[in-house]
Each structure stands twice: as C-alpha cells, then as structure tokens.
Amino acid sequence: MSQSTKMNAALKKYVLQPLIDDGFTGKYPHYRKVYENRIELLSIQKNKYGNSFTIEISTIFPKQKDRKKNFNDHGEGLDEINVWDTNLRYRLPGTINGWFYYTDVYTCTYKIKGRKFVDYLDISETKKRDFQPPENYEQIQQADDTIYEKVCFDVNKQMEKAFEWWGKMSKKA
C-alpha cells in the first residue's frame, strides 16, 4: 500500500469520520455542515508533488443581501460551492511550512545577503532507500508506519483553531 493510500485511510478514520459524526456531509476532498443561517466548509488540498496536504475552511452566509462579499457565486447551486469559491478562508498552519507531510523531511537554513531562508526536502518512501541528504541538511521528520496517525493527531489539534474560527464567523451572520 502506498503512503498516499495509507494517509487517506488514516484521514478518513481519524479526521473525517469524527466530522461526519458531527454533522458534516460531502465526499473527499470537500465537506460541509449546513446551519439555518450559514454553511461551514472544509476542503483538503493535496500537494501536486505528493507527500503532503493542507486543509482550508470557510463559512458562507447564503441569505446575505450582498453574497459577492462572502463567496463567488458562479450560478451553481449551494450544494456545489466549496472553500475554493469563498473570499474569506482559514488555512490550518500545518506541521511543516504550512503543510502536513507524511514522509521523511529534511531542512536547511541559510543566509543570502543577510536574509534568512529555509529549504525543505520531502523524500518519498520509494526514494528514501537511495537518498543521501545534501550537505547541511538535517532530518526533522522520519516517516514510519506511525506517521499517519501522528499527522491526523496534528490535524485534529489544529482543528480546534478551525472550530474557534468558525465560531467567530457564526457571530457575524
């Protein structure tokens, strides 16, 4: 089983199922919880290069007079709107550089003209057998079979901030 398949299974079990039990509906990668005056949205975005993902949330208020301030209404029904159609979003900070990684990760900090830069390398399961880290890179995360649950624990911990954000937004309705 691939790392991506293992991560998806862990997300469904430890992150998405509790949300569904709490009233969210939808299918991967878009979920929603409908209230009388608002709809809370959650979307999971995979990194196009693999091995990581991020989560964004939003809230829309369909009954507002000026709906354009809240979301980009392209004429589709409210059932089709997801986080990426909204104007105001909250992105979970992730664990490394704004993303949740489920692979080995290496980092290097360096300066150019007095400015500090940080570089991250994520190494997939298939590449790590032959991988030799470049000079000055150090490993900050090692992936093993427990990484998927650890990542889900981090997501759920950060979801506490997401629920706070949704709470603040619900007061604006």
In short:
With 173 residues, the chain is of the alpha+beta class. The protein contains 2 helices and 9 strands.
Structure report:
It is a single chain. Helix content is 25%, strand content 30%. The protein has helices at residues 3-21, 147-170, and strands at 25-27, 30-34, 39-46, 52-60, 89-91, 100-101, 104-112, 115-123, 138-141. The strands form two sheets. Strands 1, 2, 3, 4, 5 and 6 form a six-stranded antiparallel β-sheet that branches. A three-stranded antiparallel β-sheet has the order 8-7-9, with no helix packed on it. α1 runs parallel beside α2 (147-170). The longest helix has 24 residues, at 147-170. It is globular and about 55 Å long. The termini are far apart. 24% of the residues are buried.
Which keywords apply here?
single chain; 30% strand; 173 residues; alpha+beta
Q: How many helices?
A: 2
Major beta-sheet overview: 6 strands, antiparallel
Which blocks of ≥5 consecutive residues have pLDDT under 50? Answer: none
Query: Strand tally, please?
Result: 9
Helix content: 10-25%
- From N to C, what is the helix and strand string? HEEEEEEEEEH
Shape: globular
Mean pLDDT, rounded to whole units? 89
Residue fraction in strands: 25-35%
Structural class: alpha+beta
Radius of gyration: 19 Å
Q: What is the distance, rounded to the nearest whole angstrom, between the alpha carbons of the first and last residues?
A: 45 Å
